[in-house]
Amino acid sequence: MLGCIEIPLCDSDEVVELYPDQLPDSDEVIGILRREHAQLHIWINLALEYYKQQKIEDFIKILKSSRIYANVDYQSKRDIAKNYFRIVTESVPDNVEAWIELAQMQENDWNASLNAHKTAKKILKEKVGAEVRPEILNNVGSIHHRLGNLEEARKNYEESLLCSKIYAQDNPIYYNPLSVTTTYNLARVYEELYRFDRAEKLYKDILKEHPDYIDCYLRLGCMARDKGQIYEASGWFKDALQIDNEHRGAWSLLGNLHLAKMEWGPAQKIFERILKNPSSRNDKYSLIALGNISLNTLHQSGKDKNREKRHQDRALAMYEKVLHIDPNNIRAANGIGVVLAHKGYLNEAATTEFCDVWLNIAHIYVEQKQFVMAIRMYKNCLRKFYKYHHACRVAPQDTELLYNVALVLERLAEQILKDEKSTLTTVLQAVHELELSHKYFQYLATLGDSMKQLAEPEVRECQDLLLQAQYHVARARRLDEEEKMLRRKLEDEKQAFKLRQAEEQQKLEELRRQKEKEILQKRQEYIQKTKNIRVFGDMPTEKTPGKKGRRPRTDQYVSDCDGLGGEERREDAAPREKKKRKISSEGLSRGKGKKRNEERSGSESDRRRAKRARKLDSGKNGRKLAPEVTRNNSRFLSKETISTSESESDKDVNNKQVVMR
Questions:
Q1: Mean pLDDT of all residues in 494-504
Q2: DSSP single-letter state for residue 8
Q3: Which among 149, 435, 537, 572 is placed 20 to 30 Å from 483, CA to CA?
């Protein structure tokens, strides 16, 4: 026989034995398990036996009931249940109930749960051909809500409400409460979308039909608190306490109102009252709140070291108690870090991944007077943890924020008006902001809130500044006119200077073009003259008519050198001279001119020879002519022996020839 499954009885040591081959009806088994508060693993084992016998409907029914009624004392059994539901969805993929139960078992994995719900919706629409039930739509909307997909959540909630109204006609007992829950969820979505009017209407509609719905009172109070309407918020919380005087949430929110107004005494009494209740003596929120109160009163202890130490120890004890209850509570850990920082243990106080921790690290930098690092830390905290960086847009009715904004506008306007160098635009903007600040202070002074006493003197201060503003505006306007005139004058001078520069540039350009034109003209004239010279130089010499004979030779070597060998050269050259004379006798007039040229060249050669003699005598190491060269070799002659008279070159330039022997 197969092993039996034992179900222990609550009030005795006896057990109920169920054998797999003799399993009763699933409803009977569920009744026994519910009555005896059976552990989850017993439910799972029984469901598995039904599954082995191909009793899928009984299997699903037991698993579905186990999620609601089973006594779950450890998470591993829940994980086993998830695995069994996965087995069912793989074996029977069209089973809608299995997908819905799997989605609800995966409540800690929102994406997986959403996918399972989507699969169930798809099966219902495409394969079963049925409408999606309102509870499924509400669950899908709730998952989108938790994931931050507010628009998708709104659509699913609204669709669920429409379906609930239709289904409520046949089964009002089940679907009317579901409709109320969905309406509340939809109001929460509108609240997070900052559509407070729609959310407020839905909350009040619920209270008309169900005046004991405490969560609606609490949400209305929170909305009033966020708008800065503290007294109205307190009224809503007190209405909730009239329904349930021991409601922990209502007392906590009421204590928070006192904390926001820095009323430490009343807040402390409220949280201590919560802890005195046996059902909430380990309330983590109240313990952390009392620790925070001790930290805030710590700064008011002055120089009393004993009182300061007492507050530190009390705060530390509260945070440690929370960590004993919940070791993963980040707020308690952060509170301990604050206490350590206040005691001087700065390195031990630092940690990350929590916005309050970043803020407290920034506060530590402020205490250390490292203001640059503090500003950087505050900015990083805003960038990392806060989506909206403008506090007035997040909570436009918050009186404290409004007071701070008005005060900043007033102080900035005052500084700008006192600055004599402020421009007209800046002054006018400052006056506008001062008027806005005055309106803010007037609103706060008539609101009757805790800001009234602070706002009233600022109203008078703004009025005085507005009276003085006319003088500052007139002064700024006068300075602006003077600046405009000076700017206009400088602009005119600049334009005149540019005009003069353009005229001078034009004149220089004109002179340059004129000069280039003259140079080009002279060049053309020069080219024309050189052409004429070439033409006349190439023309042949005209012969004297009637005279024939050989052309006389005009180029001769003439040497009047008196040095060594001079006479010998003359004697050697005598026959040639006679020949020349014979030739030159044919032309008497030409010979006479030639003689004059020779005399002139002779006198010039004498002067040259005398000059060279002086140069040779002045230097002892001067060079001497080689006698052998001058005497024996008549072919090597001195440079001074070659002479050409100017008259000869002028007379017959074209016929001059130089003969080297």
A1: 92
A2: E
A3: 435
